[in-house]
Amino acid sequence: MKTTDVPQDDANMMQGVFREPVYSLDKDGNYTTVRSVGWDPKNAVMQEAWDNVNEKIEHTRQDVLAGKLSPIAYYIEKNIMDTGLVAKYMGIWKWRVKKHLKPHNFAKLNNEILEKYAKVFSISKEELIDIDKQNDHQ
Amino acid sequence: MTNSINIELNFQHKQSAHCENGVVSNLLRYYGIELSEPMVFGIGSGLFFSHMPFLKVGGIPVTSFRPLPGIIFKRISKRLGIKFEKHKYSKPLKAMDALDTNLRNGIPTGMLVGVYHLTYFPDPYRFHFNAHNIVVYGKKDNNYLISDPIMEDYKTLTYDELLKVRYAKGTFAPKGHMYWAKNIPENIDLESAIIKGIKHTCKDMLTIPIPMFGVKGIRFLSKKVRSYPKKLGAKRAASYTGQIVRAQEEIGTGGAGFRYMYGAFLQEASTILKNDNLKKLSYELSEIGDLWREFAVITGRIVKNRNKADESYNKAADLLLVIADREEEFFKKLKDSIK
Questions:
Q1: Helix or strand run (H / E) with residue B177
Q2: Strand B60-64 and strand B50-57: pairing?
Q3: With CB atoms counted within 10 Å of each terminal CB, which end of chain A scores lower, N or C?
Q4: Rounded distance, CA B134 to CA B147, Å?
């Protein structure tokens, strides 16, 4: 690829934090880097992956609101985690996290465990208990 | 928490595409060794290809254009004869104390961190990847001074923020892992290191007797891609194919699955080894990189039309076969050119 062909298709994937160096050939045939803000096909595949994540979050949110799952299920999806990873952050067994996904088990959790979950998801205990309370909707 | 210190080492940060290359390159510069990112990448044999259908992340098979994290680091230190001191700490507080001690002793320190909780990362790139490398080169008040190789500028993290990312959980959990240069030889034999690096890459791409790796892996992937729409349905097929391009173009590849970066390495190597063939090959690799980009263009279209059946899968699979042939020919020539 030539330096002049390095794409600059901005889809705000890097949120202005940085640009990525792309190795390319200058007019004298020397390799150099040109900073790029993005490329259409790459933006498309990244967006697709995030669409899938967001779809799953919304789906789980509906299940939580319908009383089929506990809020933990929602925050797991929101943080792109799974029960295994949450168990590691919590320092408890995975089967216990799975158990806590059931609303009737979640309702019985003591304060200490709730606070711990809240910390893992970087939210308050109130947001953990009531998912409508969390304000930074993605 | 430890007593506060105020230290800023004279550490020059240079942005790189790939974090492992970048940290090595930046650390060596501190000790007076100027090695570009492509040089580190080439000597460390960072170019690779693998497609492992049984290994899934987020339910999607893993395609990778690089060896496992840490390998480039290991190879480059071996080939250049540079000794690194490495440590893991079971207790986070100890890991932070050890870092402060290093800074007091004037040692810029590399470490592994998880990116999900990295506060300065853009949101779309924040997922649970735990093998990111950064260098800490100072501490002011409660803020650590960070050189993150993929960032354009210097960054800072508070004590708590740094502790959190050093103890991210999951696959490749860093467990406070940190490393720093211990012994740097007076004379570095660049020529032999380059040749070893090239030989290793040719071997990896041509001769691993398992069909998931190297050029064979690309052909294997082609077969899989062709079968995706029938086997998986339009939507999942698009996700599977999109994942290949995400790996190919993700942060750190410099584009086209590292092919351009390796081309830059061959060009530099041609000057050092006084070998014109390598320069010719560097241009050939840029063309192969362009083919990978073409693959990404087709995939981008597939992904955008993901709710309908798409004819492009055959086209994408055919292109992968062309790429495999070109790469096979390329690495054979590369192998011959350094004999």
A1: none
A2: antiparallel
A3: C
A4: 6
pLDDT at B310: 73
Put simply, the answer to whether A20 touches B150 (Cβ < 8 Å) is yes
**Residue at token pair 């040692």:** B107
Q: Residue A24: in which H helix or E strand, if any?
A: strand A20-25
Query: Are A18 and B15 inside 8 Å of each other by CB?
Result: yes
Query: Residue A82: closest CA among chain B residues belongs to which residue?
Result: B58
Q: Is B137 helix (H, G, I), strand (E, B) or coil?
A: strand
Task: Say if residues A108 and A91 touch (Cβ distance below 8 Å).
Answer: no
C-alpha span between A73 and A85 (Å, rounded): 13
CB A40 within 8 A of CB A9: yes
pLDDT tens figures, B59-110: 899 999 999 999 999 999 999 999 999 999 999 999 999 999 999 999 999 9
Q: Any CB–CB contact under 8 A between A31 and chain B?
A: yes
Distance (Å, whole) CA B113 – CA B149: 13
Q: Is the dihedral of CA B238, B240, B242, B245 positive or negative?
A: negative
